[in-house]
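Hi D.,

Good news: the full-assembly prediction came through. Inputs first.
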Amino acid sequence: MENIQSRRNFLKITSGITGGLILGFNWFSANATETEIINSTFSSSLDFNSFLAIEPTGKVIIYSPNPEIGQGIKTAFPIIVAEELDVDWKDVIVKQADLDKKFERQVTGGSGAIKHSWDRLRKAGATAKYLLKEAAAQRWKVNMSELKTEKGFVIHTSGKKLSYGELAEEASKLKVPEKVELKKFADYQLIGSTIKGVDNPDLLVGKPLFGIDYQKEGMLHAQIQRPPAFGMKLKSFDATEAKKMSGIVNVVSFGNKVAIVGKSTWEVMQARKTVKYEWEKEKDLESTDDHNRIFNELLNKKEAEIRRKDGDIETAFKNAYKVIEAEYQCPFIPHNPMEPMNFFAHVREDGVTLAGPTQNPQSAQQQVAKLLNIAPEKITVELTKMGGGFGRRLNSDYALEAAELSSIIKAPVRVMWTREDDMTGGIYRPAVKYRFKASIDKNGNMTGFYLKGVGMNAGNATRQDNFPVGAVENVLIESVDYKSSITTGPWRAPITNFLASAEQSFLDEVAVAVGKDPIQFRLELLEKVKSNPIGKITYEPNRFIETIKMVAEKSNWGKQKKGIYQGFSVYFSHFSYVAQVAQVEVKKGKPTLKKVFAVTDCGVVVNQSGARNQVYGAIVDGFGHAMFANLKFKNGAPEESNYDKYRLIRYNEVPEIEVHFVNNGIDPTGLGEPALPPTGGAIANAIFKATGKRLYSQPFILADEKLENFV
Amino acid sequence: MANLSLKINGKTYNTDVDPNTPLLWVLRDHIGLVGTKYGCGIAQCGACTVHLNGSATRSCILPVSAISGMDVTTIEGLSENGTHPVQQAWDELDVPQCGYCQAGQMMSASALLATNKKPTDKDISNAMSGNICRCGTYHRIEKAVKLAAEKMK
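Then the structure:
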């Protein structure tokens, strides 16, 4: 049964490729060296989750299994393959693969794809190149050492050449080499160049690419009314009027929800307004004021989960010459991808078709299988392009709703969330409050570092093995997770999206308190880590130091004209290092953010265009959310539900940004998230420099009315 | 329900819809032109921007009954084969990340450049600040508008 399913998928994706070389390889397998030629019986295809095909025409087709969410993976992965293959980029065709059970990790999340797949992708390209060269050597009866490759051709020292297309079939009959040589960093031509997004041609003319554009014969449109507040449940509803309205097919209820199903979006929207709902209280209806009270109670309580303990923090504080203490807080915020949640489902007797924007198709498949009691093999998931996600689409709730609804109404249906549904329907960045303490000795050394994080459904609200841990003798890191009825999930750079801002602001406070330059202060701590690290650390101090020094140089740190104030921040996340300097100007007493410098060490930069876009975007995202984002609750209900009240950063509000990469040739690491965490801290520290005021809570705009015109 | 004749991208479409239906949903659900996107439904994000007699207009709150006889241009009709200078500039500078808002961004930009060949920074800011890009591609949008203006000279 499984074999048939997998073979069918394979046949589907390889249709149109005959007589060429098809190489199967595993982008996600634990064994990076596994590569095999797929022969015409497809017998080996089950072992591979990705395919590189060279057609007789010389076109190279690469299947991209990862969901594309705007992080550029669909462009970056094939660049790496094409580099080792030595093929002209214009001959590369990238296709999105649908969910296949062979893909062990078909997920977009955690900025982990490039790091994980780097070796596998290079190996696949290099293996194909080797086979093509060997085929040419056999045909010409020459030694392989006399051959080189360039832009899709194998070239002999004599000058004669053959295209990959001409060699593909012969190459497909050879044995895959056990070892191949990979290129050196200095020899890269494609990697590190500027390559445009592979979806641009379709995207820029408005072709249907996204989940919300998905169409199927007979597809119905649905919207779902969910409880208006966290802690409420559905008591009853009356849809008599709605059912009579034009275009309405059905109104059904499941799991505390009411689904209005019809022939078009607008008709469903209109009918939805006429349904009379009665809700009742199921749990406590929490308000933001309650959260603030709970934060303070839990911060002051002794009970907490100890995440890390080095040395003896109590003695350090008892013997301290000076103790610095501060608290930082952030609110719940929605993800707000521009494409709201939506999913297509068609539950039939013989199986289920799902299609839509998801960062985690495998989880959607498994959860739908469980919900409907159907074997996962009978559920296909088509991956559409996603209009952003920021972590929201790691949760499969909206796919499950669509599947459940389709199983009830026995029809193909797309459930669409309105913006209001999207913003109020749950899954938020958790609200968190931190307490920091540092003990300082007579010589101005930080002898103790204490961090307690209290989060609302945040899991571990700390990152206990990250800097400055490792540089301080006595450390205590504690976390408390409060079980709130407000649902949460990962939000771009989970936890660190605010923890970094808080921690980097606090370290700035400590630096000022001991009379040291904030950059020098960090560098001294990192030198300590280098010579004598305390306990387990996750970062490499040398890479931290190099990144910091480079941003100091690029931003002319400490050499600013009068009236210009700089703030510094640096953070390590998703195995990458990002240092930022924010530059604020004060005019007529009002500070304005003019510029942000960013230096990133993510190892090798795979695509300059994609990489720079990620860093710019992450800074804009980090700045906008630190400044404005705030979702408040009153009796369990979110108070902001659309962009008239919930402020997202706009075109006229962004500062100048200058982006640099260390680009040191080290194996590449994540970039979808790492440039966001440092931004809030850099800005807060620049504002402190300019105004003398510390910003202890986000959004910043509420903390100081002078910031009204900050942008 | 009412029979309405709509002029979209130079073609005439006859539709039978509730006259209050916003143009956005007529385009997407009835005519099958899905390049114009839904983002907020209250004219705050600009994802649904089309040209109405050449002016950038939010289609999510525009009842179809109000546009009888007027020319509507959507991203699909901005050019044949994506050759409008704005589309070319967006491609050359590789503006998109997720790309969802970019049709609306390009419609705002092309409406500006149709009447203002040499827009100042302030003009561009005024024209583009109604379009939210959640990925934060604003810096490239600025460059692309300027490049498109160059191309249109």
